[in-house]
Amino acid sequence: MAGRRLLDLLFVRGVVEAVEEVAYRTRLLRLSGAVGLEWTPGQQVRVHVKDLLAAQTWLHGLRDVLRTYSVWDYEPETGRLELYVLDHDGAGPGTRWAHTAEPGQEVVFGKPEGRFVTRPAAYHVFVGEETACVPFGAMLRALPAAEAVHGAIEIARPEGRLPLPRGEELTWRYRGDKSAASSLSLVEAVRGLSLPAEPGVAYVAGEARTVQAVRDHFVRERGWPRGAVLVKPFWTPGKRGLE
């Protein structure tokens, strides 16, 4: 089939190896078969949560075909790729896909992409909420142990903590049932961090308005160059298409 051959040229095929609940509202999807991809910790993949070749997909539009997920871990030699997928409010296509995925199921996705990765720095600061924890896990794992790490992570509750490498070096905040949007709590946590006088590099990810507020803190209050604050707005209420 011509359409399937074209997909094989443009995308990667994997198979669900395991599905596991790993934290509050978070599940691990472990895929196999993706051998030899180039991946830098912090990058993401675009997953086909619907069959692109199905007639129903074209009848209902293509906007809900792809969902972007940061990669938790990847082994190029074995082809094992791990995604940590968060449950979001509502029953969107990505949530439905994650809840119905089962071992043996084929998954089609794009090759790893994105520039939200670590840079050489005097030290590294990680700031975000649940949606930031997956790329942060990969980035922290890849950092040499000798490089200094600081940061603030805000999540709903303690049982939602992912096993972040060097997580004991980060400040954790729990917001309960409050929204992560426009989070003053996270900004205050960052304001309270004791950082060296010279700038390092900050990696700030999560809800768009909170990300902007944290960047403003680094630039306006701490006097950091804007280029030293890398931001990744994954979502914001009422808007689609952020990643």
UniProtKB/TrEMBL annotation:
Pfam family, one: SIP
Sequence ranges assigned to domain FAD-binding FR-type in this UniProt record: 9-119
SUPFAM superfamilies reported for this sequence: Riboflavin synthase domain-like
Any one GO molecular-function label of the UniProt entry: oxidoreductase activity
InterPro entries: FAD-bd_FR_type, FNR_nucleotide-bd, Riboflavin_synthase-like_b-brl, SIP_FAD-bd, SIP_fam, SIP_rossman_dom
PANTHER family: FERRIC REDUCTASE, NADPH-DEPENDENT (PTHR30157), NADPH-DEPENDENT FERRIC-CHELATE REDUCTASE (PTHR30157:SF0)
Protein name (Swiss-Prot/TrEMBL): NADPH-dependent ferric siderophore reductase, contains FAD-binding and SIP domains
Species name: Thermomonospora echinospora
